[in-house]
User: Fold these one by one.
Assistant:
Number 1:
Amino acid sequence: MSRWLIPGHVVLALAVTAAAAQTEPMKIGIFDPEVLWKQTEVGKKYNQDLSAARDRLQAQIDKKQDELEALKSRLRQQQTSLSEDRVNEMKKEIIGKQTDLDRLNEDSTKEMKYQLGEVQSRFQEMLVRTLETFGREKSFTMILNRGVVDYSAASVDISQDLIVKFNEMNKVQAAAAAGTAKKPADAPKEAPKN
């Protein structure tokens, strides 16, 4: 999740400042936000909710697409035996169905982007609280996102410990997460991403 990246020069400046200000050794941890997104209970629930929404929207799109294709097929098969007026009516109906399909695709794309943004924002807030709590409890000087680190020893990777802490701190949210990925009634719709 690229939203969590901090420019490298900022991280380096913070590290140098922190090292100069302290007489005791620095304790640094590295974590991978993607691992937390995929392996925490809340992240798993959010992913399930997003997949269910995508599947629901894709089913609606597929149904509209099938209706459109059936109408096009019927026109191709019957065009020679239909009156010119009936052919024109069917062509207008095809255009209308294509417009409906295009709108549904656009609305579905907007809905999925909205839902993804909402759950990522909530997840980010939970992650920040978890990092702050975990860092204080374990006396870390600094916890860095793997995305801003060019090299780190495996011994400083705290992703698995953060998953445990995240799940512990967000038990209530995990139960409520089922309803959190649902969009408000007036939210714009978005298209499924395959």
Note: Confidence is low (pLDDT under 50) at residues 181-194.
Number 2:
Amino acid sequence: MNTKIITETARKTLDGTMSFPEVVGQLLAAEVEYYHVDYVGMRKTFYSADGDAVVTPINYEGLPPVAADFDAAALRADILDSQRNNQPYRDFTRRAMEAGTQGYFAFLRGKRVTYFGRQGEQHTEWFPNAQTAPFTEQAIRAAYAKTKTGVDFPRLIRDLKALGIVSYDHLLETGSNIFHGKGGQSVSLSNMGPSVQVNPQPNLESLKKYISMHQSGQTNYPTLCGQAGEAGVEKWTSDLLAMTCTYFDKSGRKMHVELIPDGEYKK
């Protein structure tokens, strides 16, 4: 790797005198494959395909500590402000830390950036105009907009699979989803359902009753979320390859596994 180009690019990034597309071009020319930004250690580490590394400091003063809770919506707004309004990198850094981002990996050849929260939360952002992104927030939300009751769920799964999604987690207390793709990428989206209180005492029989009601079209998605929380469900994971939906309680124990049909639910 060309250490001089890397250190100069890192300096201009902090100074706000080089745009992100210019940064990517310079680092690729310096044979950087990816780099890691560490907001806890306040440093950047640049890696080559051969495993060589160059470390540069993030020498901003007066930055806040990394927030304990990861706010994907605030992070996304921060990213958009930089992309659309040329926000200074120092302001981007401050807002990312306030949103609970402990750091991120920028994969230059993979054309994506993956951000991490302190509890392992993730959000993946594709480079602007990257043609390899298999699914986007807009496409996901469009698929969900067509889902009215549980009768529509098998079709939703087919639509998500067509986007390249292989699984997703729904977190009831935050109302957010984490979608996972074939290439290992993941996207965290907020407001994918209501934020509901989760009963610490799981009730399997109630859960099965609520699922059956939803599958028959008696309830909509927000109602199911509230009922599942009442039955002690903290999250569910839909595996689009195994075609299963697995429900977990607050202790992380598996409560129930429901098969997802390829067609409609049986009457």
Note: The two ends are 63 Å apart (CA to CA).
Number 3:
Amino acid sequence: MPNSDIQTIQLALVAAVALLMLVQMIVLLAVFFVIRKAVRSMREDLEDLRSSIAPIIYNTRDLLTRLTPKIEETTGDLAALTRSLRTQAADVQSAANEIVDRVRRQASRLDIMLSNVLDAVERASVFMADTVAKPMRQLSAILASVKAVVESLRTVDPAAARSQSSRAHGDKDMFV
């Protein structure tokens, strides 16, 4: 009977393996149904999402199709405006540089002219001072000498004449 024990054990093992395979098949079948249900649910959610997003995508595509020429035109206009502004800025800079250069030249000319005028005024004042002061000193000296001569001729006393002539030389109120 040792043979029958081995056969019984083998039969029990085959039955156990068959039972385990049946359980595995049931588990795999349950997993299949769960996954199939999840796929259906995801497909429905995806269809809902697609139906809600599709109009937005189509509207956006339509909007971009309509706006693309306008955006390109605006970009071209902005580029032209930028070029124009650069040109005008360069012109303004050139004009400003020219004006500043002219102002510098005129200021230099004005400085030279004022220096020449002031030099001429100074020379004229020196000339006038020399021209008027020198004859006035000479005239003052002549008048003092005439006065001394007249006073000496008026006085009979020579001692009195000397005292008056010394007073005439000390007189500080002379006309200049």
Note: The longest helix spans residues 2-154.
